[in-house]
Amino acid sequence: MTAEELHDFAVQVLMEEYSDTNAEVVKYDKKNPNEADFYFVNSGKRPNFSVGAFGEKKVNVLVVYKEETDKDISDIDTSWMVEEYRRTGAIPRVTFANAWCIYGEDKTQNGKPALCGGDFCFKYYSVSLLPDEKNEPLAKNLSDIELANMYSEAWRKFDASIVEPYLDKDFHYGSDWVFDEMPSRKEYLDYFTAKLATVKSKASQMAMGVCRNHQTRDVGVIIKDGDVVSVIYLTISEGRITSGIMKEHDKHFKVIDPDEELYMNHGDHLDCIMPSNRLIQKYLHPIIQEAKAWRTARTAVTTEDMYEERTTVFSLMYGTGDVRLLATIAASKKNKRNEFMSIYPFGNGVPYEVTIDKVLEWDNQIEATVLCSIGEFEFAFFPIDYYCNKEKYQEGEKLTVDLSALGMKVEEAQRGFQFEGQQAIDWLAKIGEKPNYDEDGNVEPVKFSMENMVAFFNKNSKCPDEAEFQSPAGDIIESSSVLGVDFFKTDVIICRRDTDDGELQVTIPLYFRRDFFPTVQKADPIRGWLWITGSVVGQHEQEGFDNKEEPTLAKLAADFEEYMDSINIDQVDDLMGALSELPLLKIRRGYVLDVFEEGDSHGSRHMPYCHTEGAYEHYYPTDVEEVEENQYGSLFGMFKKERQTVKKKVHIPYDDSLLIHGRIGFGEADDVPPILPYFYVPFTEEGIMQAWLLDNITDFMPRGWHMNYNTVYYVFDTERIEKMFPVYDEETCGSFGRRSKVRDEVLALNLETLLPSVKITGDKAILEYAYWNDWRGMVKSTVEVVKDGDSVKFSKPENKVLVAYDCGIMF
Questions:
Q1: Which helix (H) or strand (E) holds 346?
Q2: Residue 224: which H helix or E strand, with range?
Q3: Phi, psi (5° rounding) for residue 442?
Q4: How confident is the model at residue 631 (pLDDT cuts 50, 70, 90)?
Q5: How many whole angstroms separate alpha carbon 124 and alpha carbon 113?
């Protein structure tokens, strides 16, 4: 089609759409190219709301076809439409139309501007030509949340004038339930005013609130009318609302309290050590590589791309002194990767019993800001252990927490000031005192000391755990060095006041960079900004995964086993999701962990292997050797079998550019190299344990038929022992019933020695673990571990049978 033909087509389609809404649509018999193409008037039962705003007045529509998406009409004379509006009130409007290809001869053109000559989709955008519209200077530059709250208030109070000053003159309003749109503030305000009057007259029980999509950061107003929930998506630009589109409620839009929306990041907190961009770019990788596991929990988490799931969240601690860094990571099964959630510094604290007044949970569901009080003193802190202690941070509860602060800015405070001469006389007069004079007859100055002054107040409700402070410094101690940055430690008073129960004083340790105030001395008045962190008392200093009943490595292994039990291996293409449960292991760049089935008709098992991300060849099956025709006659020569294809496997060595499809035999599986050399493994207890789990991942996947002889049940917790060895019951059948015969022998073992352990000596380590097998019994295994470059190697296990048993089952 030519551009002219596309224009006419666009006009026809647009007129038909208005007609379908029961609007009266009339095409102009255009006398010149600068006149409107058609007009429409609301006249049916399904009105276009923009027309309804102006009663029965018509809207003149000039359609401008553009191959590109620009909205420039400077070369088009629209004065006729404006004059018509002044004379008759007909609303002038330009509607831009773009045609996009659908199908056609060349499907590669789909979604591109009309080029292919096939089917078309039209996209329209309208611009109002109403004269004398302009944006007045704003009285105040409001945030997007403040603007959304103002828009919501206009709904609540049935008063459109509340939001009017902050609507752009070209404000666009639309709805998924109405074809037309309003392209101007004037049109919308007329409609909105009438709409609010209607809602008010009907005494509607509508409820509304401000909401935010924390994936896109968009804001909106959520409206609940009976069972119908919708959201008006707002677009904000330069302090004005430029558009509002009513849509069905999207679950990513969450209702928020505008007064409690927080800054949910740690950029300023990292600045306590060094500029956050420098720390992230230069030090993040070595921090994660060298950090030790601190705490783990299974909890709900929402990642940045708004995937929400219940998974394992763990933290890594970097540093050994008073000031350390904590990184929080979520093992996302949906994304099949470890989601880096946050990193921030914190310091060792002192215990205080606080009353939890309110918990402001962050959007990721694993961090929060806690508003609390000590007596009459109200403040806030960031709980570094929130994700693993959610059940303890409950409103109204009393909780003992370790509190400390990091200095975001620390400097010497003003030590005092004085009034002299007439100022001194005037001030003394206010308090009914007379001045003193020196030997020369001069008024002695009135001196004020600020050296013992205590001040603490929050200036920004978006970050209530940060505060401006002033306090005399306590003992000055040269504390930690983190990433080459030296810190001082001192004590500061954040509350000192008289109460009915006596004086209330709250003193907490403050850690701040030495270069902030290198000459600081005890009792010096200091001031600045600080950030308060806290954690439940008794857990702050515990390194290693937090589990009182099970050792660190056992808990780590049990969580991995739980994850593997939760997936159906027959429905996954690879095992990359399993790596989310083994966060210390890093697969080498360009490689993928995958799985294939090994075995034959007598049994099978699932085996891991690694290949390049671009692997393309099939390891098996590989080739067809020849095709030959065979005739098979029956005894009477009545039947024969038709041509048969004979396939012969051609054995080729495996390399990591190959994909393995289908089941392969045991001999061929020997060609597939082990997977650990494809991984970076830190030579730590946790790193070795995670490497062992990965190396033995086959044991956590399904087996078939005779391969079940090798099925093992690892002892990762004491509960498993109880489940595996029930009290004997004559009616109990299967291996569980038979196992009960050796129950007493198993329970007589030292159960703690059955749990996995790793002991490192130099570049070697000994790993011990235990398992149950229905054809061998309870077995204790010992494996030697050695460093292999940046990975590890495991020796063949040395096994010792602690309780012999054979279930007697023959498959």
A1: strand 337-347
A2: strand 219-225
A3: -85, 145
A4: very low
A5: 13
Hey, is 241 helix, strand or coil? strand
Q: What is the DSSP string of 278-333?
A: HHHHHHHHHHHHHPEEEEEEEEEEE-TT--EEEEEEEEEEE-SSSEEEEEEEEEET
Q: Tell me the per-residue pLDDT of 31-67, one tens digit each, with 9 for 90 and over.
A: 666 678 998 886 544 555 544 444 567 899 999 888 7
* Residue 669 three-state SS: helix
Interatomic CA distance for residues 418 and 284, integer angstroms:
50
Task: State phi, psi for 37 to the nearest 5 degrees.
Answer: -85, -40
181 in Cβ contact with 51 (< 8 Å): no
Helix (H, G, I), strand (E, B) or coil at 586: strand
6 contact partners, CB below 8 Å, separation of at least 6:
65, 97, 99, 114, 120
Token readout for 224 is 């609940």
pLDDT tens by residue, 325-384: 999 999 877 667 788 899 999 999 999 999 999 999 988 899 999 999 999 899 999 999
pLDDT in tens, 752-766: 889 999 999 989 999
Taking the C-alpha atoms of residue 268 and residue 529, their distance in angstroms, rounded to an integer, is: 11
Q: At what angle are helices 144-156 and 185-201 packed, to 10 degrees?
A: 40
3-state secondary structure of 106: coil
Nearest to 186 by CA among 220, 222, 148, 135: 135
Largest CA distance in the chain: 146
Beta strands in 375-484 (DSSP E): 377-383, 398-412, 416-419, 446-449, 455-457, 466-472, 477-482
623/646 Cα distance (integer angstroms): 11
Alpha-carbon span 674 to 281, nearest angstrom: 34
**Helix, strand or coil for residue 568?**
coil
Among 137, 209, 180, residue whose Cα is nearest residue 44? 180
Count other Cβ atoms within 10 Å, centred on residue 678: 22
% of the chain residues with pLDDT over 70:
85
**E strand or H helix at 296:** strand 292-302
| 18 vs 42: CA distance, rounded Å | 9
pLDDT band per the 50, 70, 90 thresholds, residue 639: very low
The predicted pLDDT at position 569 comes to 60
pLDDT at 147 over 80: yes
Task: State how far the Cα of 75 lies from the Cα of 574, in Å rounded to an integer.
Answer: 58
d(CA 173, CA 178): 11
| Strand duo 658-659 + 617-618: pairing | parallel
> Residue 88 carries which DSSP code?
H
pTM above 0.70, yes or no: no
The per-residue pLDDT of the chain, averaged, comes to 83
